[in-house]
């Protein structure tokens, strides 16, 4: 709930998604979950529907996905609430469908990290224990 230009950082992410046509969000909360729910409510003030799946802070992303799976549609975007990336979601979805893959990731080039890619851009390995 860090303030950025007078609004929580997460509010900027929600506004970015809504501006690209996203109408339903599932917020998987742990840390500050009560504050997040109090601020965003059902999403009406952001022109979207927001539902919540709350779990302990120590849950991994995978565990949160498993616990919230009944709330997702067949296809969904997963974003981390502490990252901001200007991504055209319609273009990303078109790429995903064209490539006919199970999962599509967006990654920013950097040294090191826990994801390794082949020259064609496909993910070659992922090591959750390796420092990102």
UniProtKB/TrEMBL annotation:
<feature type="domain" description="Nucleotidyl transferase">
    <location>
        <begin position="3"/>
        <end position="110"/>
    </location>
</feature>
<dbReference type="InterPro" id="IPR050486">
    <property type="entry name" value="Mannose-1P_guanyltransferase"/>
</dbReference>
<dbReference type="InterPro" id="IPR029044">
    <property type="entry name" value="Nucleotide-diphossugar_trans"/>
</dbReference>
<dbReference type="InterPro" id="IPR005835">
    <property type="entry name" value="NTP_transferase_dom"/>
</dbReference>
<dbReference type="Pfam" id="PF00483">
    <property type="entry name" value="NTP_transferase"/>
</dbReference>
<protein>
    <recommendedName>
        <fullName>Nucleotidyl transferase domain-containing protein</fullName>
    </recommendedName>
</protein>
């Amino acid at each position: 709930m860090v303030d950025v230009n007078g609004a929580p950082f997460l509010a900027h992410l929600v506004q970015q998604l809504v501006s690209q046509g996203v109408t339903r969000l599932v917020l998987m909360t742990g840390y500050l979950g009560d504050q997040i729910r109090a601020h965003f409510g059902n999403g009406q003030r952001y022109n979207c529907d927001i539902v919540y799946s709350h779990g302990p802070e120590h849950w991994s992303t995978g565990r949160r996905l498993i616990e919230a799976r009944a709330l997702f549609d067949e296809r969904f975007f997963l974003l981390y609430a502490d990252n901001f990336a200007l991504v055209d979601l319609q273009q990303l979805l078109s790429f995903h469908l064209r490539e006919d893959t199970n999962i599509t990731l967006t990654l920013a080039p950097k040294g090191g990290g826990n994801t390794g890619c082949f020259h064609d851009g496909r993910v070659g390995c992922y090591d959750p224990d390796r420092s990102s």
